[in-house]
Fold Outer membrane protein beta-barrel domain-containing protein.
Amino acid sequence: MSPSIALAESEIAWMMGGQISHKTQELDQLLDSELSFKVVSLTARAGYRDFYAAVNLSQSFDDADVSEEGETGDASREDYDITLGWNITPEFTVFGGYKTGETEIDFKARDSVIEDAEGDITAAFTDTFEESGLFVGVGYGISLGTAGQLGFSIAYADMDADNDLTGTPDEGDMDEEDDVDFDDLTGTFSGDVSGYSAAAQWSIPLSDSLVYQAIIRYNSYEQEIDDTVQGVKVSFDVDERFYEMGMGLLYVF
């Protein structure tokens, strides 16, 4: 979700590119530590006059290590989005689209936990967290002359979330007085997600058709879950944050 670079002078401009980045994810209500991914991204864009469309695919290629009090494991992340934008002026852009992202965490219970549980525990399990929905945003670009272009963008997203938690549930029945945490849950739980992203991007032409880009991006989302567990109504606010720094090349046809 970022403003487009200047399009080629032809009526239709086609662009393809790739990027390598480092992405950090924080899930405060589930993990004590943050997830750190190495990510590869591919993008394809088409521009027609003052309008453009873009498809972006992102996948972690180096799993994040997970180290919690009771479990170890690894995690992966993938994201996809489709963006439509309008360059209202050479500097100002509005855009919107659809995005989906999923984090998958493979947990393994520590040996000490398995021994204490005397076999009444799921030794290995996978949790997945997926969010999908629409976003809208604005971008502003500043020409730096021969030093390239600096762009800023901010966007708001309204999404649905599906959380699939498969670990061993806490023993015993629940009642209204129980203090239930998000990481105590087992099952599939849906929620409403909203939040924003902010990005800064620097781009500079290396030739008539090749552009170098560097970007930093921050995403902050809050998920609201209202559900029933063992007949007890529960409500959670789950905070999720992403920090990303990357660089790549864009080829203009």
Q: What stands out?
A: DSSP finds one helix and eleven strands in the chain. The mean pLDDT is 87. The first strand starts at residue 12 and ends at 27. The two ends are 22 Å apart (CA to CA).
